[in-house]
Batch of 3 targets.
Target 1
Amino acid sequence: MIIAANFKTNHTRKSTREYVETLKEFLASKEIKDQILIFPPATALDSFSSPSNLKIGAQNAYPVVNGSFTGEIGLEQLDEFGIKTILLGHSERRHILKESQELIAKKFSFFKERDFEIVYCVGEPLEIREKGFEALVKYIYGQLENIDLNYDKLIVAYEPVWAIGTGLSAKSEDIKEVLNELRKDIKAPLLYGGSVKPSNAKEILSIQNCDGLLIGTASWKAESFCEIIEISKKLAEEK
Ligand code: PGA
């Protein structure tokens, strides 16, 4: 399983360091084998010494090595810390920051060419879900336009917009239906994200074709994120 933490605009440089230390101790003491990804804010990116199954990634970057793009960071800033993992297409960047599919696809190509592991997010807003499954699939495939689905370092996260940060996760049946649809064209690992927490992690991780979780709110406290990692471990042992 892949368990990822999206800090969004939370945590400082100092608290991220403390978080990573807590997490490292936890991963070692529980002998966790799952792949763990952490996406801190850009100001907290750093060269962390970490075990091979813990990677630190960027929540966003501009598709340039360097240049004049005020407020953005590029490849040079990621290279400084050996960052080779990036989150792209997150709903907050699509809807709040108004990132177009064209720009997201450009970022995808740029970071793919540089061999980055890419966690690529898709997900429908409520008004699309209400139009039915066919409309939903069409919408999600629009978000996959010009994305190389065969890229070997691709991870796709399905995150329905209405489930993000609302405390209300999608129902297992609904998640299953979308993941099964995506699986027809995507061999890459498929994650679910949207109000995942310790109380629903087991049920979601048990869904067919679900290869892991992308967690926002419930990842911001290291204890809660570790609790979810442990749930995943126990589930694997039960199988
Ligand atoms: P959430 O966020 O867990 O707070 O719903 C998930 C995400 O946006 O990746």
Target 2
Amino acid sequence: MSRWPLLFVAIAALGAGSCAKLTLAWADLKPDGPAARPEVLGAFGPQAPVASLEDWTSLRRPALKEALQANIYGYFPDSYKLTVLDRKLLDENAFGGGRLEEYKLRAQLRFGETTSETETFYMDVVTPNGVPNAPVILIQTFCPRWDTLPHPAVYRPEDAGGCGGGPATGVMTYVFGRYIATPPTQMILARGYGVATIYPSEFAPDRKDEGLAALKQMSKGLASDKQRWGAIAAWAWGYSLMVDALEEGADGPRDYISWGHSRYGKSALLAAAFDDRISAVISHQSGTGGASLNQQKKGESVKAIIDGYPHWFAKAYENYAGEEETMPIDQHQLLALIAPRPVLLGNARRDVWSDPNGAFRAAVGAGPVYKLYGAQGLDQDRLDVWAPAADIAYWIRPGTHGVVKEDWPAFLEFLDAHFLKK
Ligand code: GCU
């Protein structure tokens, strides 16, 4: 009984926007709209155009990171330290062939002279047996840990809420697809990849008041003239915490892939832009504040996202509501910060709220930076070409917002194309 209200809250939260805007419109399959501005290697503020890779890495990358924090996401901590409070083996042979472990974590962060601490949170990790140093897919989702990685040994309270389980999960899956709450862990392990999951609401709640309170608490030493970070940035930092925990006691180098759908798709991109230890990104339907350009956009406007989710971004982003054309920076520059690492941008033709066209134009706009590294970014001139081996792979399928049956096989094809060849 008590689960039903939660279910409706979950659907409202997930679907505000996307579900309510299940319009009959279809994204066009030919790119439509002007090129991304400013040109990624052109002049930027007081900076001259980028003339070399050295210019890009030593001058332009830091300037873009600063501008993204100042205008959109708010500031990451000046420094931080993760503590692994406990690490426990839960099952040596879980999900048809993986080693399942639980990490109990807490982080200390420093802004200026002030240190604060996160709440304690958990990470569950399952790595394929017999595949030493398998690449690990870092996953954050809408659902508490017991729904993301359901296993008898993963703690589940008696009155488990969140994504619910039972009929609630059934309805959610019906609306948002088979894999919305739970990835196909067995399939992923069988393909030779590990999975690490956290529920980032444990330290930065995805709720307006509670979220803002936690974000303020975590950034209390921030200088008053700087923008406080929003939840999208805090969750992006969460991906770095996952890497820190996995690196502690690792047997050798391995690849980490940040994976996220929708709001976590935004964070998964930001995480890789700021943390070079992340080798690749799968960002599915990330939309506004993710891969889709702010300027000349269709779908969710800056005003809509700020009104709906005031805890996601820095206050400064509000200044561009209705004034998107005045933005000094746009999302192709976020993608460019990830170059030359592979990125998959997932889309659906009826998910016009996430603006598949804007994501395509952002990918085109990031291209010159991939070329600067001798890599090939997006390598197509239509939206419906599936080229998993491209460094920017663009996936579009029929249907709406969600993680459906055909999405994970495509994600794994992209990973195989980039990681099996090594
Ligand atoms: C809403 C929001 C989007 C977001 C999505 C999600 O639709 O408007 O920006 O990506 O929720 O996270 O599912």
Target 3
Amino acid sequence: MFLKGKSAIVTGSTSGIGLAYAKAFASEGASVVINGFGDAADIEKERAALEATSGAKALYDAADMTKPDEIAAMVQRCHAELGGPDIIVNNAGIQFVAPIEDFPVEKWDAIIAINLSSAFHMMRAAVPLMKAAKWGRIISTASAHSLVASPAKSAYVTAKHGLAGLTKTIALETATFGITVNAISPGYVWTPLVEKQIPDTMAARNMTREQVMNDVLLDAQPTKEFVTVEQVAALALYLCRDEAKSITGANLSVDGGWTAA
Ligand code: NAD
């Protein structure tokens, strides 16, 4: 339990990749703050399960990643109730797909706010506390779309490229304080979100499940396999180890070879 006594905040951790990060940190004894939207009873069940796993505290904070004041308050709450934060993961994200001429302005603003600016606000609030502690781990879930583009994803690709630049900048600013700042860039990850798209696509395109998986979803991914949330979370856990202290400012791909092509 190498994270015993440490605290972690994971934004957007009520489902998918974020929840897997929270479980991984808890499995090593960290106290965690989970965040995001969803059914209150489901969230409470996950929170209680994290406490049972870690033997440490788990809090839920409903901070909306479009609201800088709520983000700063979540960091202060963690500091007051759990100490730290020792680890922060900027993970909350949304997607919207449309060509530029049809892209709704409010969707652009929301994606830039949630997928990019929230990471700035998280780091702005947490870095002074990490500098004082002389230890910190900052991880952002970027994407293969922080390295390459796809059509009809202007806001998402812009936000993720921005997150990669922000990661490098804050890595340089914190390098002598025992703090590392890295991005993890997954390809297609098997989450409930992806799974739910399959039956609709099978019907719309008259395809089998295998055809939808390989010819639609995994077209860009050379391994023709989804990344799992556990694989992404395992890398985040590694980045928190002392052995990973020289890895900073990196953008680490977990994308089945997508960005090698
Ligand atoms: P998901 O939809 O399962 O999880 C997104 C989380 O963000 C949820 O907990 C949701 O409640 C939260 N969220 C959304 N808006 C929020 C807001 N305004 N304030 C606070 N929380 C908010 O999706 P996921 O697949 O787990 O994605 C997590 C991250 O991984 C995102 O940044 C996404 O861009 C990135 N990513 C996902 C994939 C993939 O294939 N699934 C690939 C690459 C990168």
